[in-house]
Structure formats: structure tokens, C-alpha cells
Amino acid sequence: MIGTVLAHQGGWDEILMVAGPIAIIVGLLAIVRRRLGTGPLDQDRSTETADSEID
Question: Given this model, what pLDDT does residue 45 score?
Fold first, then answer.
């Protein structure tokens, strides 16, 4: 049965073989950025606190 599913069916299986690992890597990078606090929202907050400390 798995051979039938993975048989050449117009290219969708090749798309999954490429898009799957890319999606996993993007997801892992998002998790790492959240844990490190280097996301776009955190950078804006750090800039705001730096400005308030200078004044």
C-alpha cells in the first residue's frame, strides 16, 4: 500500500519531500528565536528600554 501512495502521482510527493523538511527547519528556528528572545517584537522592546535609560 505504501508503494501505491508514494508512486509518482503528478509531483505532489516530491513537493512533500522538499516542503516537509523546510517546514520543520522553519518551525525549529521559530522556537529557538522565541527561547532566545530575538524575535522582531523583542528587538523593538529592547530598543525602547535602551532609549528610556539614556534619558
Answer: 56
pLDDT in tens, 27-55: 999 999 999 987 565 555 555 555 555 65
Q: Are 19 and 25 in contact (CB under 8 A)?
A: no
- The answer to whether 13 and 6 are in contact (CB under 8 A) is yes
Residue 6 contacts by C-beta under 8 Å, 6 or more apart in sequence?
A: 13
**Nearby residues of 13 by Cβ (< 8 Å), 6 or more positions away:** 5, 6, 7
Q: In the block, which residue shows the cell 522582531?
A: 40
